[in-house]
From TrEMBL:
Protein name: AP-1 complex subunit gamma
Residue ranges, compositional bias (Polar residues): 616-627
UniProt keywords, alphabetically: Cytoplasmic vesicle, Golgi apparatus, Membrane, Protein transport, Transport
Membrane topology note: Peripheral membrane protein
Spans annotated as Disordered: 616-649
Domain GAE: 724-839
Alphabetical list of PANTHER family matching this protein: ADAPTIN, ALPHA/GAMMA/EPSILON (PTHR22780)
Lineage: Eukaryota, Metazoa, Chordata, Craniata, Vertebrata
Family to which this protein belongs: Belongs to the adaptor complexes large subunit family.
Gene: AP1G1
Principal location class: membrane
Localization: Cytoplasmic vesicle membrane; Endomembrane system; Golgi apparatus
Domain of life: Eukaryota
Coiled-coil region(s): none
Keyword Transcription applies: no
Length: 844
């Protein structure tokens, strides 16, 4: 054992040299590679690597300078195979400090592979790199520049930026191109050093060497992307860049830079990218480069992939700058030619680029519509998806029929992962550009028949609304849907729509009166057979069975000969294990037994539905999966003790503890019919507390505007001035939103309290889509008028006001439940609160 620092005797020295001479020389890198490749299994390879790593470690411990370079080279090969090689980091630093070029080369390569800025070891090589940047040999300087440009940290870049800037000004083109790339890395790590390199960039574009030109353009691009000031400064170089690009196009054959017959395509692509950055949002620069872009687009050979790469960059530049309209058409035509290329990558790139430009150059892209539609038949799924998205973007009122025909054919034959997006796109396009209601209905029914299981959730209510609003198409639609589901219940959305339509328009189906196509002869029993088959089918979901049971119940008022059969079907499902189905059946049984005189009015045909923006006088309310329009109207209330008793019973049946009927305008002296009673009672059923009412039948007079209690019947002032003494209250204060109530009493009817809400927002961002809803116990009656706005301004700079009118004939203490929904900071917010602190003056 020999300790460091001890004086060795001659015998000890001779013994050590003998041991060293006896140690075999490590195998060469080529032999290691050949040995590793002979391994038949992963375990055998690991064994070889571990054995060689052990030998390398032993050599490192012996401080063997003779074979350090060879050992580090083998270690780097193992690193590239994925094995750990961190124990060679310090050996790389020793090789870098060596004076031999071969050692430095392996040392710098090892530093680039094994070191990064997360490890403090890399800071130890800063001084070595600085010395090598000032070395007399250009190849050593080049090694140092490559290493700094590859893995230099921000600290190293700050320390060595001056040396890089000095080499950027040298006359040696070999060093200038490497210094330019190193400067790019320095700017990325330390952007504030950008101005240091500005003087050196002035003469870079005058260089004849293509390597220097290429790296100079990369450096200018990086500076322009990172600094608006640099962008404005370098815009004056546009004519020089145009001249360089023109020389590349017009120059003859140069074997040094030629690639497939094109002169230095890499430099051309880089210049085009820089021109795109310089010409963006600048009229003068764009004007200066229009001609050269046209020359590149027309003179570049397209038979090779090299030319296609240049053309693609040219197209991107034309689309990004303020180019002429003719030049943009030329660019889109180039993309159209790309669509005919056999290379799938080129076709995909063309479709992606056309998708980005279709909004700004719609007519030019439309010329290639047939080629785009042909791409829907491509075997490549990526191309197929891009073609589908672009096809939907091309749909307009002029080509809707032809495009829908192609897209429906695509929907029929495409893979399942495309069906949902394709069906949604067809729905949106048909809704926007449908030439007629019959075409619209036929198209959506075709989608439901082809891909019904893949459509989005709102497809069913949207189609139901469309059918309801197309009054003249009811007989045609119900006949088509009836034939569509005969014996096939696999497409559940289609079955749901068909069940709804049969329930609504079953009388039209059995009457055989259809003007649009040849009518079919169907009996009442056949219709019920279909609906009962849906109820018992294993393919039917719980929602579909609910549609079918409701349809059967509706048919009890449309059919005359099968009412007893309907009663039996409904009673059977009163004991269903499906809670939803059981609840419906129990309610329908109660209508048959207790409220049979009201059944015809309750199950009458749905009125025309209208979609109106939120907070307006009309809203779409979802009830049991069906869409019901609720324009705010008032109806005469029923009179007499018997109708009142029936009303309470029916409200209890439907669970209407918080249901608030609209306040009537005036009492009537004559009892209304059963249908009128029902409409009066259910006119404002809305479990969310929003005001709503169903339209009255023709026998009940309707009021076009939503008047309140005794409004317009008296010339007296509506509000009592004495009520100004009622104190206001804060009903809600949370998350920056504050709701305050102020009160007034009606001068015409002391039982009416008018509450004005004021919503304010103390946060720094507006609250949008604000909706206020309220509900009161059924001993009260409530009317909620439209708000002044749907946006609550930030910083309390404004408020939303909304009026609530409450009728309290029994002078009971007022209680209210409120629901608030709004969007804030990109998130949808919702909250519930109860207000029980109303001042006595507001209700006594």
């Amino acid at each position: 054992m020999y300790l460091a620092g001890e004086a060795w005797s001659p015998n000890q020295w001779i013994t050590r040299q003998f041991l060293v001479l006896r140690m075999p020389a490590p195998i060469r890198l080529r032999e290691l590679i050949r040995t590793i490749r002979t391994a038949r299994t992963q375990a055998e390879e690991r064994e070889m690597i571990q054995k060689e790593c052990a030998a390398i470690r032993s050599s490192f411990r012996e401080e063997d300078n003779t074979y350090r370079c060879r050992n580090v080279a083998k270690l780097l090969y193992m690193h590239m195979l994925g094995y750990p090689a961190h124990f060679g980091q310090l050996e790389c630093l020793k090789l870098i400090a060596s004076q031999k070029f071969t050692d430095k080369r392996i040392g710098y390569l090892g530093a680039m592979l094994l070191l990064d800025e997360r490890q403090d070891v890399h800071l130890l090589m800063t001084n070595c790199i600085k010395n090598d940047l000032n070395h007399s040999t250009q190849y050593v300087q080049g090694l140092a520049l490559c290493t700094l440009g590859c893995m230099g940290s921000s600290e190293m870049c700050r320390d060595l930026a001056g040396e890089v800037e000095k080499l950027l000004k040298t006359s040696n083109s070999y060093l200038r191109k490497k210094a330019a790339l190193c400067a790019v890395h320095v700017i990325r790590k330390v952007p504030e050093l950008m101005e240091m390199f500005l003087p050196a960039t002035k003469n870079l574009l005058n260089e004849k060497n293509h390597g220097v030109l290429h790296t100079s353009v990369v450096l200018l691009t990086e500076m322009c992307e990172r600094s608006p000031d640099m962008l404005a400064h370098f815009r004056k170089l546009v004519p020089q860049l145009v001249r360089i690009l023109k020389n590349l196009i017009m120059s003859g054959y140069s074997p040094e830079h030629d690639v497939s017959g094109i002169s230095d395509p890499f430099l051309q692509v880089r210049i085009l990218r820089l021109l795109r950055i310089l010409g963006r949002n600048d009229d003068d620069s764009s004007e200066a480069m229009n001609d050269i872009l046209a020359q590149v687009a027309t003179n570049t050979e397209t038979s090779k992939n090299v030319g296609n790469a240049i053309l693609y960059e040219t197209v991107l530049t034309i689309m990004d700058i303020k180019s002429e309209s003719g030049l943009r058409v030329l660019a889109i035509n180039i993309l159209g030619r790309f669509l005919l290329n056999n290379d799938k990558n080129i076709r995909y790139v063309a479709l992606t680029s056309l998708l980005k430009t279709v909004q700004t150059d719609h007519n030019a892209v439309q010329r290639h519509r047939s080629t785009i539609v042909d791409c829907l038949k491509d075997l490549d799924v990526s191309i197929k998806r891009r073609a589908m998205e672009l096809s939907f973007a091309l749909v307009n009122g002029n080509n809707i029929r032809g495009m829908m025909k192609e897209l429906l054919y695509f929907l029929d034959s495409c893979e399942p992962e495309f069906k949902a997006d394709c069906a949604s796109g067809i729905f949106l396009a048909a809704e926007k550009y449908a030439p007629s209601k019959r075409w619209h209905i036929d198209t959506i029914m075709r989608v439901l028949t082809t891909a019904g299981s893949y459509v989005r959730d709102d497809a069913v209510p949207n189609l139901i609304q469309l059918i309801t609003n197309s009054v003249e198409m009811h007989a045609y639609t119900v006949q088509r849907l009836y034939k569509a589901i005969l014996g096939d219940y696999s497409q559940q959305p289609l079955v749901q729509v068909a069940a709804w339509c049969i329930g609504e328009y079953g009388d039209l189906l059995v009457s055989g009166q259809c003007e649009e196509e040849e009518p079919i002869q169907v009996t009442e029993d056949e219709v019920l057979d279909i609906l009962e088959s849906v109820l018992i089918s294993n393919m039917s979901t719980s929602v579909t069975r609910g549609y079918a049971l409701t349809a059967i119940m509706k048919l009890s008022t449309r059919f005359t000969c099968t009412v007893n059969r309907i009663k039996k079907v409904v009673s059977i499902y009163g004991s269903s294990i499906d809670v939803e189905l059981q609840q419906r059946a129990v309610e329908y049984n109660a209508l048959f037994k207790k409220y049979d005189h009201m059944r015809s009015a309750l199950l009458e045909r749905m009125p025309v539905m209208e979609k109106v923006t939120t907070n307006g006088p009309t809203e779409i309310v979802q009830t049991n999966g069906e869409t019901d329009p609720t324009p705010l109207e008032t109806k005469p209330p029923p009179s007499g003790p018997q109708p009142t008793s029936q009303a309470n019973d029916l409200l209890d049946l439907l669970g209407g503890n918080d249901i608030t009927p609209v306040i009537p305008t005036a009492p009537t002296s004559k009892p209304a019919s059963a249908g009128g009673e029902l409409l009066d009672l259910l006119g404002d059923i809305n479990l969310t507390g929003a005001p709503a009412a169903a339209p009255a039948p023709a026998s009940v007079p309707q009021i076009s505007q939503p008047p309140f209690l005794l409004d317009g019947l008296s010339s007296q002032p509506l509000f009592n001035d004495i009520a100004t003494g009622i104190p206001s209250i804060t009903a809600y204060s949370k998350n920056g939103l504050k709701i305050e109530f102020t009160f007034e009493r009606s001068n015409t009817n002391p039982s009416v309290t008018v509450i004005t809400i004021q919503a304010s927002n103390s946060t720094e961002l507006d609250m949008t889509d604000f909706v206020f809803q309220a509900a009161v116990p059924k001993t009260f009656q409530l009317q909620l008028l439209s708000p002044s706005s749907s946006i609550v301004p930030a910083f309390n700079t404004g408020t939303i006001t909304q009026v609530i009118k409450v009728l309290n004939p029994q002078k009971q203490q007022l209680r209210m439940r409120i629901k608030l929904t709004y969007n804030h900071k990109g998130s949808a917010m919702q909250d519930l609160a109860e207000v029980n602190n109303f001042p006595p003056q507001s209700w006594q």
